[in-house]
Write a structure and sequence with these properties.
This protein is mainly α. It has one domain. The chain has a two-stranded parallel ribbon. α2 packs parallel to α4, α3 packs across α4 and α4 runs antiparallel to α7.
Length: 227
């Protein structure tokens, strides 16, 4: 841990990580403020047809570990990799928060299962209950940050030079992004519409980051020609 702290001190760009506590506070503030208010309910006819499956809590919770792992990885991969990874991840969290601030939204809590009549109790339902307790009523759902950030991480992996020839890991990261996205609807945290909006958000942020990198490289190349 000390080495990590010393590294951050010598690489001030890592201070972008301070966004995380700000994001957590903003997310909770919006959720609490809108808890008892009328919000735009996001719903699709497909939502009720998708069965509840508590075991999807595994990819759902893995999202947090994936973010932490990829972020720490980027810290030690240098400035360029750090900016790309965190630009993608943070961008896919900022845009949904802006939308949720301007258009408070959520899903109908009735979409969630009744555990008393569900007929089963296991370790997976235990963790689903914990998620429900921490995020009830379900707010800030569109676009789904779980989905947008999952695909942002996938895009970061396929663009990373470190994983350039690691096709197996690239394929796995893509499959896992899909699994995390599916988990949001199977544990009834999101609507299908949130998933599509999340994918769209990730694609938009990816385009912005790639264009920003291209502009930076062109300007740097022109500056080198001048000198």
């Amino acid at each position: 841990m000390k080495k990590l702290i010393d590294y951050i001190k010598n690489n001030r760009y890592c201070l972008w990580l301070l966004y995380w506590p700000f994001h957590g506070l903003l997310y909770e503030a919006i959720r609490i403020i809108t808890a008892d208010s009328q919000v735009l309910l996001i719903e699709s006819p497909l939502d009720a047809k998708i069965p509840f499956c508590e075991w999807f809590i595994i990819p759902y919770v893995s999202w947090y570990l994936c973010i932490a792992g990829l972020t720490i990885f980027s810290i030690f991969r240098g400035r360029r990799e750090f900016y790309r990874v965190n630009g993608l991840i943070i961008g896919c969290m900022v845009l949904p928060m802006i939308f949720c601030t301007l258009v408070p939204n959520g899903i109908d809590i009735a979409l969630r299962p009744n555990f008393e009549t569900l007929g089963r109790e296991n370790i997976a339902t235990f963790f689903v209950k914990l998620i429900y307790a921490a995020d009830s009523p379900p707010r800030n759902v569109m676009p789904s940050m779980h989905v947008s950030v999952s695909f942002a991480m996938f895009f970061a992996v396929i663009k990373s030079k470190f994983f350039k020839k690691n096709y197996i890991f690239k394929a796995f990261s893509g499959i896992w992004a899909v699994m995390i996205s599916l988990s949001t609807v199977f544990i009834k945290q999101h609507s299908v519409l949130d998933v599509f909006a999340g994918i769209g958000t990730a694609v938009l942020v990816f385009i912005i980051v790639i264009v920003a990198e291209a502009i930076y490289d062109r300007r740097r190349k022109n500056d080198q020609r001048v000198y």
